[in-house]
Structure formats: C-alpha cells, structure tokens
C-alpha cells in the first residue's frame, strides 16, 4: 500500500502527531482533511499548510461525527483513509474527588471517539478499493502510567478493539493498522511533566521521526507499529509486566 494520491481524514490534526501526519502526507501528494475542536487552531493550521482542508468537529459527540460523515461524503467522495488520532491525556490522582462526568473524558475522546468514527465511516470505506483505518493508541496500552490511569485504560481498550476489528474485517477491502507511539516531543508531554515534576527521564521521539517511521511501516505492510519505547513496553508486558510497571511508576507521582 502506497500513501500517495489518497484522500485522508485525520482527527485531531492541529498539533503534535496529527499535524505532522498532515504535513508529511500532504507532501506525499495526498488530499488531507483534518478535524479539531478549536476553530482558531484549525484556521492557523490551514495557513501553515496551504492546500489542507479543515473541519471543526469533536469526536466525543456522536451528532458531530454524523455531520462530519455527511460533509465528507459530499466534499470528498473518494475518501479512503481514516486516521483516528484525536485524544487527550491528563494526570489524575484517583485518591482525590473528581466530577464523575469529567473523569471519563479520556474514555469518551480516546476510546469511544475512534469506535464511533469507525462505525460511522466503515460502510463507505468498504466501498473503496484499497481502504485504510489507522487507530492511534499508545505504548501505555501495554504498561499503564500510574499518573495517567484513565488515559492508559482508554488506550488499552483501543488496542483490544483494534485487534478485534482487524480480525473481523480480515478478507475485506479495509486494512486496519494500529500505531502505538512512544513518548513524543509535544507540548502535551511537557505540560504533563510540569504538572508532575516527573517523566523527565523519559526520552521523547520527535513527531517528524515518528511519522516517517509510520509511513514507511504502513507502506511496508505492517499492521502494528510500535516505535522505540512502545516496542519495549509491549515486550515487557509479556516478559516482566510487574517489573516494568514498577519502573514506570517511579517516573512520576500523582498530584491532582
């Protein structure tokens, strides 16, 4: 599968991994559409990457997913690639009081969002001759980070869902890929570090390097991409899970 001359929808495409995916895939001659919740950031992304298409849409609201689907079919009927990248990550101290609805925001965005996006777009993608779905999970799907319990749980759920989805669609026209990034050098990671005072020992990969490896992996036919530390976490989750969990826990201590 070549990632050239395709019509690609990327959720959460205004920063970090999503923005770099948009940048590099645009350079490969693809039609790129990104979504985000902040219109100001969407406008800035379009200015930064001329030729990009941007739509305001929040994957945590099913009605907005349905509207996005109608907009895509009307404007981009040849859409053949969906990259579920939108997500949030927070430090949460479970020993402190939290609003019950707010507690599950990562589940709504990071897990329910991709599941509902796939369910909505799958009938169309099955009509395309060489369709692709990429779900962006995390290395924390294999070994959780104590300071980000709900995020880790949501990404573990997305990993399991993606495995099942791939098996159910085996033999169809739709290829299912999971990208499990390691720590990536983004404002999100550094913001989490500032909150905990930890995680500084965790080496971070640049978004550009991650995306180059991702594109190469997909074009080489891989269905599970675990660059850098993510592959270590995946291996250790089978070989010595408790040891690796203790090591991860020492990196930071929950505060809020």
Would you give an account of this structure?
With 256 residues, this protein is α/β, with parallel strands linked by helices. It is built from ten helices and seven strands. It has helices spanning 16-27, 39-48, 62-75, 100-103, 105-125, 149-168, 187-196, 207-219, 229-239, 241-249, and strands at 7-10, 31-36, 53-56, 81-84, 131-136, 174-179, 224-225. The chain has a seven-stranded parallel beta sheet with strand order 3-2-1-4-5-6-7, sandwiched between helices. β5, α6 and β6 form a beta-alpha-beta unit. The longest helix has 21 residues, at 105-125. The mean pLDDT is 92.
Judging from the principal axes of the Cα atoms, what is the shape? globular
Count of DSSP H/I helices: 10
Residues in β-strands, percent: 5-15%
Instruction: Count every beta strand, where a strand is a DSSP E run of 2 or more residues.
Output: 7
Helix content percent band: 40-55%
Q: Could you state the order of secondary-structure elements as H and E?
A: EHEHEHEHHEHEHHEHH
Can you list the strand order of the major beta sheet?
3-2-1-4-5-6-7
Q: Give the averaged pLDDT, no decimals.
A: 92
Computed CA radius of gyration, to the nearest angstrom: 18 Å
* Unreliable segments of 5+ consecutive residues: none
């Amino acid at each position: 599968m070549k990632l050239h001359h395709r019509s690609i929808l990327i959720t959460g495409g205004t920063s970090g991994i999503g923005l770099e995916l948009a940048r590099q895939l645009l350079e490969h001659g693809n039609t790129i559409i990104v979504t985000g919740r902040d219109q100001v950031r969407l406008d800035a992304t379009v200015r930064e990457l001329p030729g990009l298409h941007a739509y305001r849409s929040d994957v945590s609201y099913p009605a907005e997913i349905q509207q996005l689907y109608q907009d895509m079919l009307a404007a981009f009927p040849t859409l053949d690639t969906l990259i579920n990248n939108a997500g949030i990550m927070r430090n949460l101290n479970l020993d402190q009081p939290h609003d019950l609805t707010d507690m599950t925001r990562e589940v709504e965005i990071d897990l329910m969002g991709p599941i509902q996006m796939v369910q909505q777009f799958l009938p169309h993608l099955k009509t395309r001759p060489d369709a692709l779905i990429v779900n962006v999970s995390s290395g924390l799907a294999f070994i959780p980070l104590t300071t980000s319990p709900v995020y880790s749980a949501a990404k573990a759920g997305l990993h399991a869902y993606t495995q099942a989805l791939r098996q159910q669609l085996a033999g169809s026209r739709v290829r299912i890929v999971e990208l499990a990034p390691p720590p990536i050098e983004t404002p999100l990671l550094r913001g989490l570090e500032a909150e905990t005072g930890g995680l500084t020992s965790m080496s971070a990969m640049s978004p550009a390097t991650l995306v180059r490896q991702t594109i190469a992996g997909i074009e080489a036919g891989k269905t599970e991409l675990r660059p850098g530390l993510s592959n270590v976490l995946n291996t250790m989750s089978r070989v010595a899970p408790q040891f690796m969990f203790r090591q991860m826990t020492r990196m930071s201590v929950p505060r809020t």
